[in-house]
Amino acid sequence: MLPPDAHIEIVFFLGEAASAGDANALIARCREADLDAVLSEVRSHWAAVLGAVRVKTTPERAMDIMLNGWLLYQTLSCRIWARSRFYQASGAYGFRDQLQDGMALVATRPAITPEQRLRAAARQFVEGDVQHWWLPHSGQGVRTRISDDRVWLAYAVAHYVSATADAAVLDEMTPFLEGQLLRADEHDSFFHPTVSDDVGTLFEHCARGLDASLKLGPHGLPLIGTGDWNDGMNRVDELGRGESVWLGWLVHATLDAFAPIADARGDTTRAAAWRTHADALRAVLEREAWDGEWYRALGSTMALRSIRQAGWSAGSPRFRSPGRRSRERPTPGVRGAPWPPWNAS
To answer: Domain residues of the chain, as ranges?
Structure first.
């Protein structure tokens, strides 16, 4: 029992080891360490990582606090390393999740990003689609009809190359996967794929994903599949005709960013085809989705608009209140979505 005004410092260890012997060795090493020096080293490490980018004088003090340290810390410690959150605590790798989160680290931990892109590329099937998520210890994962996964690899790689000028990463080689295709009545399938003998550069992985994303629906917009970033829209395309405006923006932005990369590598045929597709897609987005003031959108946080096979428009006047997005709304830009620049205010 402590007497009045007294204090005591208690140190305890939490850790993990492969065996009892390894655990005892770890404990012994920690007991011999200068713990004040260790703590100082940890603090210096995080100060360097989190202080690389500083945001000042936003209108909200709370926003300053979130942006200057907390969000970046959460991205690295929780999303990249632990891969854990309230609704997904399995430790699995999420294909789009890791790519998106890694984009936030290009300025602070650029060495992580190429490794992450190559890890994702290695979970792509020869047909161009990917494992939506997979377990790292076994490689088992789920093959889906989610549409945006195929695009995110190229989008994230283009962002990395633009930010770092490290075009050499495009020549890194990694194999594709092989596995059973989804049946017509299957939305997804969990299984253990095999590693293919088909090996390609990171550029080829990106390009194959883009080439697999060019199929259009009856209005000329990309097919939503069983989700286009918003996995909750998994029933929109049950008959194979549902379309997505948000996916149109993502595909357009990615083709626009990746065509110059293809040109620089001498793949001018692909670059020309992508530009032609992007130009046509922009025209359709303006004709089908933009009414002069609003983009018709089904109530997604990323300004999604789906056109269901039944014939109604999610952004029609019938659904006007929850189903439209103004060009002035900043949410997609803040969240990193490819908000259409031609209607930016």
So the answer is: 114-213, 216-345
